Automatic annotation (TrEMBL), chain A:
PROSITE patterns associated with the record: ETF_ALPHA
Keywords tagged on the record: Electron transport, FAD, Flavoprotein, Transport
Cofactor(s) demanded: FAD
Statement: the UniProt record of this protein carries the keyword Coiled coil: no
Binding of FAD, residues: 211, 236-237, 250-254, 267-274, 288, 306-307
Organism: Ruicaihuangia caeni
Record protein name field: Electron transfer flavoprotein subunit alpha/FixB family protein
Record-linked SMART domains: ETF
Free-text remark on how the cofactor is bound: Binds 1 FAD per dimer.
Any GO BP: fatty acid beta-oxidation using acyl-CoA dehydrogenase
InterPro entries: DHS-like_NAD/FAD-binding_dom, ETF_a/b_N, ETF_a/FixB, ETF_asu_C, ETF_asu_C_CS, Rossmann-like_a/b/a_fold
Subunit architecture: Heterodimer of an alpha and a beta subunit.
All copies of domain Electron transfer flavoprotein alpha/beta-subunit N-terminal, residue ranges: 4-194
Claim: Cell cycle is one of the keywords in the record: no
Automatic annotation (TrEMBL), chain B:
Cofactor entry: FAD
GO CC annotation terms, alphabetical: cytosol
Domain of life where this protein originates: Bacteria
Species: Ruicaihuangia caeni
Transport keyword on record: yes
Sample GO molecular function, one term: electron transfer activity
Protein name (record): Electron transfer flavoprotein subunit beta
From TrEMBL, chain C:
Name the UniProt record assigns to this protein: Acyl-CoA dehydrogenase family protein
One Pfam family cited in the UniProt record for this chain: Acyl-CoA_dh_1
N-terminal signal peptide: none
InterPro entries referenced in this protein's UniProt entry, alphabetically: AcylCo_DH-like_C, AcylCo_DH/oxidase_C, AcylCoA_DH/ox_N, AcylCoA_DH/ox_N_sf, AcylCoA_DH/oxidase_NM_dom_sf
Natural source organism: Ruicaihuangia caeni
Domain Acyl-CoA dehydrogenase/oxidase N-terminal: 11-119
Keyword presence, Flavoprotein: yes
């Protein structure tokens, strides 16, 4: 079995990003995953324990005083050291803003081929082939780095697989402290989770609101339906620009791309940029007053009607049938 | 402060975008090419620094076909001082490895303190170019900034930026020279005024080929092996609400085992 | 959008810049607001002035941009197209260049900076039989024709009474001046009157062509989407021909405005005739386009619930302002007759 390095992204408070499950699942499809993580000195044991839950049996842990202070560089250094030690066929990194920085630098430092935002991974002989969903899922492409080592960023939520827990064992990874210029993180705050709602990127169900929701107060209606269905809350750019909801809920070309089982668009016209972020959803439902809204062209079930009458009634129906 | 802003021309996102089924590259013939909105914001960020300190110079840099000159002209008419256009048929279809090598080589030809780029282009969406450039140039980078300010000048000063991404708010500090990328939360680009439009034609645009940059062995690190177009989604049932839509929707959910 | 006749890169770029600005800053809601409250949108005025429009035709020596008049024709069309209700044409295309060319040193020093920067707004009565002017009530500066001389007045020197305008967002006022006010100090140098008339006429023609272009575009959109008998109405030959005729009228008018501006800026012998041709054809095109638009829209647009209405009413106002089609055809006829008698009269029909 070939080795596939999996880069672990921790939040400032030390939590593991849930998207790690996708990285591990993709790594399994071409080899055996080995986690690589950087922690502050003394934190090795506690992080290793938690990584078993993601199905990682083996983890390389680098301790560095720079963790939490230097942007990207400790993770880059750990991956480069791990690659030198284990000669992996591929290095997988989450396609997050931070993950992309790490991937960019690792790919250059290792002279590897960089595959971006993959949704699938397979081996063809000795080649590693990554699959991409392009222009909002209108195309599926596959690409390969050929004989080079592959560094790939992985779309979180692209497998939907639940990992089977194992017991993780850790070995220490030495990284040197020689420094290249780096940005220093002087403050880091995690967004407060406002509810128990699932995370948008990986949610199986998403309820999104658009400009027609009309106000920040109106968005409570979107949230109530989301809660009734156990869904995450999304929004169109128009709703975000109008200030109804914060930007991290934005679905679409310049926001998050989602591929849930169910996507419900409330008062969203369905501009091409929004569709690019949600049209790979398995089932799409749209409610919109405007019968000519382009969202209806891709909806499996469309209701021409006022969201303020349809949605409250729908919430009642859903709760009654539970 | 000498600033270089990276500019990309992309297919208009308001029109249909297609991939060439043979190469897997963006088919640039089917949609109108426009300056990427995020590039305009990056130019605006640079010009805002120039507004605050008149000694600041803003140079635009793009890699693209002859038509990309329009994107540079737009930026020059907004107020940038000059531009570099890397134009070489051999670079058509360059992957991010080649692109980062070429742009890094072009950046090495002139002095600068700060490179400002968009966080990701609307066509490629890779979002890795700024950090790859920083790595090749051996400088610090900060990506995905929603805002930033300078404390002090190019010598000994710092850039302090804020980003909010993937559930974390951060403040990042870095010195010069460095590379930053900005998000669409940065201010909208200014409209070029008539003086800027009239003056843009007189501003210098340096045209470079890969050979001018001393790059001859440009082989992509990644190749596309297949391209498949997904059949477009079909519209399904559509009903007009007469009071029974909620029940019909709930039935639909039940039929798909969603409730 | 832009024609190819004589339209070089500069004129296309200026027009494109202005169009992008108006797309962002002068949507239908802002057009509608100007109609409902009837007051001048000073914020929009300030933004357009800041783009450099008001000083475009002034030379760089006086703080302008030195744009050639013919290079501003497409940009002026964009104003008509946008629906913005602003006295841009009088200020930028007529009053500023006329002051620069025919004003005394004192007049240039006291009037040009404020007009070029957009701090002051100008109106002119050169074509209105001498006493009516668009936006005169809002203007800080008035260019007034009396006894074939042009006088330059500031706000304290004239008074206005509002009169009915078919376009409530382009308000009309009757201006009056105490005869004691008019003196050598207010008078502009000889030649100013004819020059100002020529400029006002070609600029109004370009503005009107922009109005027509917008009406025609709305009409084509409507014909493509409105269905009758299960087909888009634009697929019926009767509708198609109506629109095609309107397009021909408009497209034949657009180059005339360009040539009139060119002839005026170059001081060509046929400048006055070219201005008359431009306005006669622009008025004709606006009538043909407006009538077809109303037909194709099935009568909606006659009332102001439909946005077509804004451009229709502005078209009607401009069709007759700065000389109607009939007036300019008569001028042309008279000029041809006088030509044979060796006269060099300009706009002899006045």
């Amino acid at each position: 079995m070939t080795t596939v390095l999996v880069s672990i992204e921790l939040t400032p408070s030390g939590d593991v990003r849930p998207g790690l499950a996708d990285l591990v699942a993709h790594a399994r499809s071409i080899g055996s995953p080995v986690g690589v993580v950087t922690v502050a000195p003394g934190d090795s044991a506690s992080v290793t324990e938690r990584l078993g839950a993601f199905g990682l049996a083996e983890v390389l842990v680098a301790e560095s005083a720079a963790v939490g202070a230097a942007d990207a560089e400790p993770r880059v250094r750990a991956l480069v050291a791990a690659a030198a030690a284990r000669n992996p066929t591929a290095v997988l990194i989450a396609n997050t803003v931070r993950g992309r920085d790490v991937a960019a630098r690792v790919a250059v430092r290792l002279d590897a081929g960089l595959l971006l935002d993959i949704v699938g991974l397979h081996a063809e002989g000795k080649r590693v082939v990554g699959e991409h969903s392009v222009f909002g899922g209108a195309y599926l492409t596959a690409s390969t780095a050929g004989d080079r080592m592959t560094v790939a960023t992985v779309r979180e939520g692209s497998t939907g697989e639940q990992p089977s827990p194992v017991t993780a064992s850790a070995s220490a990874l030495e990284i040197d402290d020689t420094t290249v210029p780096t940005a220093v993180i002087t403050e880091a705050t995690e967004h407060a989770r406002r509810s128990e709602r699932p995370e948008l990127r990986t949610a199986e169900r998403v309820v999104s609101g658009g400009r027609a929701v009309g106000s920040a107060e109106g968005f409570e209606l979107v949230e109530r339906l989301a809660d009734a269905l156990g869904a995450a809350v999304g929004a169109s750019r128009a709703a975000v620009d109008a200030g109804y909801i914060s930007q991290d809920h934005q679905v679409g070309q310049t926001g998050v791309s989602v591929s849930p089982e169910l996507y419900i668009a409330l008062g969203i016209s369905g501009a091409i940029q929004h569709r690019a972020g949600m049209q790979t959803a398995k089932t799409i439902v749209a409610v919109n007053k405007d019968e000519t809204a382009p969202i209806f062209e891709i909806a499996d079930f469309g209701v021409v009607g006022d969201i303020f009458t349809v949605v409250p009634a729908l919430i009642a129906e859903v709760e009654a049938r539970r | 402060m000498k600033i270089i802003t990276l500019v990309k021309q992309v297919p208009d996102t308001w029109s249909e975008r297609r991939l060439d089924p043979e190469t897997g590259r963006v088919d640039r013939a089917v949609s109108e090419a426009v300056i990427d909105e995020i590039s305009e914001r990056a130019i605006e960020a640079a010009l805002a620094l120039k507004d605050a300190d008149k000694s600041t110079t803003v140079t635009l840099l793009t890699m693209g076909p002859a038509g990309a000159l329009d994107a540079l002209r737009k930026g020059l008419s907004m107020g940038a001082d000059d531009a570099v256009h890397i134009r070489d048929d051999a670079l058509q279809g360059a992957d991010v490895t080649i692109t980062s090598r070429v742009i890094a080589a072009a950046l090495l030809r002139r002095p600068w303190d700060l490179v400002i780029a968009g966080n990701e282009s609307t066509d490629g969406r890779g979002g890795v170019l700024p950090a790859m450039l920083a790595e090749r140039l051996g400088v610090a980078s900060a990506t995905g900034l929603d805002s930033f300010e300078l404390t002090g000048g190019a010598a000994g000063g710092d850039l302090v930026g804020r980003r909010s991404a993937d559930g974390v708010d951060e403040v990042l500090r870095l010195g010069f020279p460095s590379v930053v990328s900005i998000t669409e939360r940065m201010p909208d680009a200014r409209f070029p005024n008539f003086r800027g439009i009239l003056g843009a034609k007189k501003k210098p645009v340096e045209v470079l080929t890969a050979a001018d940059l001393g790059l001859t062995d440009l082989h992509p690190a990644v190749s596309v092996v297949s391209v498949a177009e997904r059949p477009p989604r079909q519209a399904g049932t559509r009903i007009i609400d007469d009071g029974s839509a909620a029940a019909a929707l709930a039935d639909f959910f039940a039929s798909r085992r969603l409730i | 959008m832009t024609g190819s006749y004589g339209a070089d890169e500069t004129s296309v770029e200026l027009a494109t810049g202005l169009r992008e600005f108006f797309n962002e800053h002068c949507g239908l809601d802002r057009v509608r607001a100007a109609w409902s409250d009837g007051s001048l949108d000073l914020a929009l005025w300030g933004e357009v002035a800041a783009l450099g429009f008001t000083g475009a035709l002034a030379s760089e020596e006086v703080g302008g941009l030195g744009v050639q008049p013919e290079d501003l024709v497409l940009a002026i069309e964009e104003i008509g197209y946008s629906g913005a209700s602003l006295p841009l044409v009088d200020t930028a295309a007529v009053v500023v260049p006329i002051i620069e060319r025919y004003g005394s040193a004192e007049q240039r020093a006291s009037f040009l900076p404020g007009l070029i920067s957009g701090e002051r707004i100008a109106a002119s009565t050169v074509m209105f039989g001498g006493d009516r002017a668009m936006f005169a009530a809002e203007a800080d500066v008035l260019l007034l024709e009396r006894d074939d001389c042009l006088h330059l007045l500031d706000r304290r020197q004239f008074s206005t009474v509002e009169v009915h305008s078919p376009d409530p967002a382009s308000r009309l006022a009757r201006v009056s001046v105490e005869s004691s006010v008019l003196s050598d100090a207010t008078r502009l140098a000889a030649g100013a009157t004819d020059d100002a008339r020529g400029r006002a006429v070609w600029a109004a023609s370009a503005l009107l062509n922009g109005v027509s272009r917008r009406m025609l575009e709305m009409t084509v959109d409507h014909a493509k989407t409105r269905e009758q008998f299960g087909r888009a109405i634009g697929s019926f030959q009767a509708v198609k021909h109506l629109i095609a005729d309107a397009w021909v009228a408009m497209e034949s008018s657009r180059p005339c405005a360009w040539y009139a501006a060119h002839a005026c800026s170059q001081g060509l012998a046929d400048a006055a005739a070219a201005a008359s041709v431009a306005k006669a054809s622009a008025s004709d095109a606006a009538r043909v386009v407006g009538d077809s638009a109303l037909q194709v829209h099935g009568g909606i647009g006659f009332t102001w619930e439909h946005p077509l209405h804004f451009w229709m009413k502005r078209g009607k106002l401009l069709e007759h302002a700065y000389g109607s089609r009939g007036f300019h055809l008569r001028s042309l006829g008279a000029a041809m007759r006088d030509d044979q008698q060796g006269s060099d009269a300009v706009f002899p029909g006045l």
